[in-house]
Amino acid sequence: MKKALKITGVMLLLVFIAVQFYQPAPNVDKGQVYTTDFTQNYPAMPDEVKTAIRTSCYDCHSNNTNYEWYDYIQPARSLVEKHIKDGKENLNFSEWDTYSGRKQKRLITSIKKQIETKKMPMSSYTLMHKDAKLNDQQIKTLTQWLKEQE
Ligand code: HEC
């Protein structure tokens, strides 16, 4: 019995090591500056708004993710990449100005709603990325600014 447990343990460890070799291409843009970026397309955007959106949303909604060391460990890695892919498909702040006026308008309302209802940034993410969690003051500032853009 003890031996069987040991074998199972070793097998699990080998599987864990094997899956580490699967590392998809990371979502990094090597410092590229986008003229289409969300924060560049509103000249009067306050710094607090810029900083909060960049810190709390850009990891999944832009072409550049600031990975933490643990983001590279499988199976978390695959989950992180899935969030980035789904997040960018819905909303990519790096490519904001390529969206039609109508789409931008819809997204502004959607962003406001996600922040107001605390659905974004996702809680599974803020659990590990504490600095991305928005406090009440930030939520107030963001929703106020977004309301003015509607
Ligand atoms: C951990 C990754 C992650 C972070 C961080 C994150 N999002 Fe998301 N977001 C997603 C994913 C995945 C989806 C699509 C699936 C869903 O709706 O849950 C999404 C969907 C959205 C949508 C819906 C888009 C639409 O078409 O209406 C909005 C708006 C949004 N996010 C805004 C934000 C804002 C604003 C922040 C920062 C305050 C943020 N997100 C942070 C992953 C993330």
Automatic annotation (TrEMBL):
Record's keyword terms, sorted: Signal
Q: Which Pfam families match?
A: Haem_bd
Q: What is this protein called?
A: Heme-binding domain-containing protein
Please state every residue range assigned to the domain named Haem-binding: 13-150
N-terminal signal peptide? 1-21
